Amino acid sequence: MCEQIYRERAHLVAHLAAIYPSVRVTDPEEPDAPTVVTVWLPTGPAGWHIRPGDLPLFDHVPPGENHYDGYSTEEKYRRLDAATAQLAQERNGPAR
């Protein structure tokens, strides 16, 4: 079950990475460290660790440098929620 959930999340992050500027970061000094995909949302960067088996979903994401700004997981999802609300308002008008 857990494998399926991570795979589903990877599909959604890959979709975000196709919409917004993004980079794929692997630490060359720590080859066992997970790859991180950072997506630059309009509200700030957000990154996710990607399992090796899900990396082919991110072939469209160029390699780059990590620009982690110290955000917490909670802040990451606040940024994502704010970007979602912003996009929804642009497409659908103000929330009712």
Kindly list the characteristics that best describe this protein.
96 residues; alpha+beta; 3-stranded antiparallel beta sheet; 3 strands
Short description:
With 96 residues, the protein is α+β, with helices and mostly antiparallel strands. 40% of the residues lie in helices and 19% in strands. A three-stranded antiparallel β-sheet has the order 1-2-3.
Largest sheet: 3 strands, antiparallel
Output the radius of gyration: 14 Å
Mean pLDDT: 93
Helical element count? 2
SSE ordering: HEEEH
Helix fraction bin? 25-40%
Classification by helices and strands: alpha+beta
The coarse overall form would be globular
Percent of sequence in beta strands: 15-25%
- Which blocks of ≥5 consecutive residues have pLDDT under 50? none
Description of the molecule:
With 96 residues, the protein is α+β, with helices and mostly antiparallel strands. It has one domain (2-92). It contains two helices and three strands. The chain has helices at residues 2-19, 73-92, and strands at 22-25, 35-41, 44-50. A three-stranded antiparallel β-sheet has the order 1-2-3. The longest helix has 20 residues, at 73-92.
Topology:
Layout: H1 2-19, E1 22-25, E2 35-41, E3 44-50, H2 73-92
Antiparallel strand pairs: 1-2, 2-3
